[in-house]
Amino acid sequence: MTLPSSANPTNTAVSASNNYNQLDPATEARVEDLLSQMTLTEKIGQLFQLNPFGPFDRDHFEAQKAEAAKAERPFHYIPQLRHDMEDLLREGRIGSFLNVTIPSVINHCQRIIMEESRLRIPLIVGSDVIHGYRTIFPIPLGESATWNPALLEQASRVAAEEASAAGVDWIYAPMVDIARDPRWGRIAEGAGEDPFVGMAMARARVRGFQSTDLTSGRRIAACPKHYIGYGAAEAGRDYNTTDFSERTLRDVYLPPFVAAFDAGAGSVMSSFNEISGVPATANPLVLKTILRHELQWPGLVVSDYESVAELVPHGIAADLKDAARLSILAGLDIEMVSDGYPKHLPELIESGEVPLAAVDEAVRRVLRLKFRLGLFENPYTDETLADKIMLRPDFRELALEVAQESMVLLKNEADILPLSPQTRLAVIGPLANNRADLLGCWSLHNHPEDVETVLKGLSVYLPEDHWEYVAGCAIRDEAPPDIAKAVKAAEAADVVLLVLGEGANMSGEGHSRTHLGLPGRQQELVDAVAATGKPLVCVLMSGRPLVIPQLNEQVQALLAAWHGGIRAGRAIADILFGTVNPSGKLTASWPRSEGQIPVYYAHKNTGRPAHEAGTKQFAELFKSVYIDAPNSPLFPFGFGLSYTQFAYSNLKVERPFLGLDETLIVSATVTNCGSHAGAEVVQLYVRDLVGSVTRPVKELKGFQKISLQPGEQQTVRFEIPVCKLGFTGWDMNHRVEPGDFKVWIGPNSATGLEGDFAVTAR
Ligand code: BGC
Hints:
By secondary structure, the chain is an alpha/beta fold. 29% of the residues lie in helices and 17% in strands. The protein folds into 3 domains: 25-386, TIM Barrel (Alpha-Beta Barrel); 407-576, 3-Layer(aba) Sandwich (Rossmann fold); 646-759, Immunoglobulins (Immunoglobulin-like), CATH 2.60.40.10. The longest helix is centred in the first third of the chain and has 17 residues, at 149-165. Beta-D-glucopyranose binds at residues 98-99, 128, 172, 225, 304-305, 509.
């Protein structure tokens, strides 16, 4: 690969992982042999993915329900296959299924292919497994707040174990879109605003998904998405137009994809958005020039859901036929769900508008992946495995660990946390006794009964007569809050624990918001409880950074808990009572107001920066500031508190003058000067002071998560090859330019010890 993929010292591999990008001659020979035997219909079949189920049939549903009730077994609806499905399979007209996770159905279909079709090319089954399959982990934005790629690799491996037992061969994750606009609901699905963090998490997830030794004996291919720039949706509205420079595409949006490919990801999903006026699904710059010519990446490109057909409303294709033509010519291999390829490729080839070679090249990529996954040898799923593997105790344990590390302590005035088990609590808020919302926005195969509520978690620490619970209001609707009851409970307590925030269906795909405060009537509830004067601790759940300046003023402690998955309740209780010292740090800035959006740490300086790195406010006339708010966010990228304190000292830049092929070595001492053992995410940022194009005021280039006992100190050393400091220069070439740099080592993006170095042209 030609683009940089910075080394991340914390990304320790925990298992071996398949690499689907290393071509091997034996597979290539099998691909060519098979391709040479295929008819055009069979070739096009391999380029078509569909959902095999017919329309929902109420009678069929009720009959299955009644049968399950009669047999006293749990009811899981199995929809009926499309009436023409078996014939389509026999004729080789279908190459893959989307989101089918019923092993008996998959096996039935594979059997038809393996026993009755001419060339016996097995299906590849793709599914969205975004933050766990059955063992649901925190939403990815929360997972990234662990700053612990090795842990995410394990979590992704668990997801792969369960998905594989359900018959999935192909996971539509990791979602590696950089997102700097929290109005966009899909910020929940990614690793936040920063390419360096995005790369670390992308690598880890791909490695985990593509682990070599899954219990099923089968393999999984990862599919990083959405390629590319989808997170730049204007105004944060999902599916909206994007418009960014090619430089931003290369320096901000591309690096996590490159990291995923370097880790061996076998496929990529094209995005819904346009890039410079050409939707990604039919964009030759991103699908051909960058992927194939520059990166020399041999993997498979699948469209997003109906994104081929969507070229028509986008207004670059006159009809579905035109959309199919543009997509295949641009380099899109598999069409997901819409049927432009099966309907129109035959005539497009007949007329010469599409060369057969374009179809052959796409089919090669599909076959290559199917061979590499071992599907020809092992197309079937063991139907008994799912029951044995789902929610295994070690998986649940890992979900707890990830949830604990994902949570970010944003405020802890006068060390009100951790709570003592003697505390009398009033637990108030609509998310305290809630299961379904803790599962987050993308948990397709979840079971709410698997979730531990916050109340359940608290019960581990407090006897029931030590707390009173009042929901107080609903998450979202406008029914008046039960203020009297909440206030009464607060008055009888030592501390009020508010459990507030968004529901799971307020973020994720198609769920953008314009107001990012507490939804519904929750703020009213807080105001009433705050008026009692009791100390307030708030656990805040969300799928995105929220805008909560008022709440932040009102509470003494604030814990960002995201939608934390099946073990969230227990993890929250462990943190509140201090069995676990919080160590999460934000991977996306939390704005003070929606008007600041996008607000992110790696912004440019501008020609008229405000004083103090552009983050100071007010009466600076004709500077790049607001008249009514500071530039800085409420909580910056990288921020998160601990129950202990870490002091930074002794920054050392080993050699202040470096050649282009040398390595920057910087270290600092971190001391735990508080009274709890704790973990700290030590962050390294640089600034390239003068470039041929303007450079961000700070860029993360390294992080390490370390654990220290009280009084303990550690010298944290970063080694960063100078070639990792490059960017897309004035001539659109990737380059490292000689000149002066600043470097910081610190606890977050807003502060740190500062040093200097220079890169010389030698
Ligand atoms: C989403 C993708 C997802 C696909 C298949 C689309 O709507 O954008 O992220 O993988 O559906 O479910």
